[in-house]
Amino acid sequence: MNKFGHLTTLPEGPFRFIALDVETAGKTIGGICQIGLCFVSETGAVQTYSVLIDPEEPFESFNTELHGISAETIAGAGSFPTVYGFLFDLLNTHRLVQHSTFDEKALTSACARYDVPMITSHWTNSVTVARQAWPALKGAGGHGLANLKKHLGLEFHHHDAGEDARAAATVILRAEDVLGSPFSHLTINRQLAFQFEDR
Fold first, then answer.
1. Which tens digits make up the pLDDT trace of 72-84?
2. 17-186, what's its fold?
3. pTM of the model
């Protein structure tokens, strides 16, 4: 299922930051069935990537109606440890953006479930950033992606992980424009290549 034209192979980095979004299958927060990534270059160019995951648990009809992913959709998809293992180094060496803290919590839960290490990346919550940039939206629909989509004129398909990741990245870039400067913590860490050397 890649109806939105997301990349199916990972692009070459490094990137200024990566926005991440997950969709889940059912009642448990760690039952991830899709990971979407939006890679943002130093020039502000964005590329999106999406991968389906077998959550190894039942799909709830509510979730499937929301994101359109079902047991049939994920037939043949890899399990979380397989997909996450493939993405681990990339995610662990970049600053990450999420809209709310749900995505980090879902990854933490999935890692605990499968007894694999959680990434130690720095996370930025684009909801917090949106509150800084557009304070008037408090009490006027709030800072969720659906309301920001309307307020900022964003074009994306809500509840597709790749699309939502792109929306979160766009919120950051638009907020930087509004606030007049880039977020200093969202810069490429040029020490990454040397992080294992003795100082």
1. 999 999 999 999 9
2. Nucleotidyltransferase; domain 5 (3.30.420)
3. 0.90
